[in-house]
Amino acid sequence: MVRGASSSRASSAFGLDLVTCYSGYVNVRPFEFISGSLCLDLVDTLANRRAEPAERLLMPGDLDRWLDAAHLVCPLRERSTRVNLAHARALREAIYRFGLAAVENRLPEPADRKRINLWAARMPLRPTIDSGRITMTAARPVEAALSTVAGDAVELILGQQRSRIRICPDCCMMFVDTSRPGKRRWCSSASGCGNRAKVRNHRSRITASA
Hints:
Elements: H1 2-5, E1 14-20, E2 26-32, H2 38-43, E3 46-47, E4 54-55, H3 60-69, H4 82-103, H5 110-120, E5 126-130, E6 133-137, H6 141-157, E7 165-167, E8 174-176, H7 193-209
Antiparallel strand pairs: 1-2, 3-4, 5-6, 7-8
């Protein structure tokens, strides 16, 4: 995988999303890389889609942090711009709708297919040898990273794992069900959607029996 080869630091399930609160303190909120797919990790940067959506790519710097946490990095990579951020968000939403169409077993919107194809056709990050180790490089690194994400979306949504794409019924996180029976319903996010559902069901049973 690109993310494993592109960084010398240890892999982590969480990147850091820094958000300044009204109090002036900096709140460290994690990016979650638990969807089972690079492209869905990007999709899930807009959290809690069903209730009160929480945007985690607010500023170009947030996109930089996500790219670093996803190990889509290059040496001396330029900083993301507001244009890069707008492109990343637009690609993210196209992938989300494309994945949703797969879950609902219907055809995707032509505009979403066109946008994903446009990015997938660009030059992605490429491996090069740097002092005996692999380094990912590109002439336009941020755009190349988005191309890599788009390519991952094509392979996921039209590949063998298409039928394993799920949407958490609580927080609407999109993920790949990697369980052996393929019957997983809930995400594995830090928000604990599955546990909350179990608690609700348990209380309902107690109330019913009482």
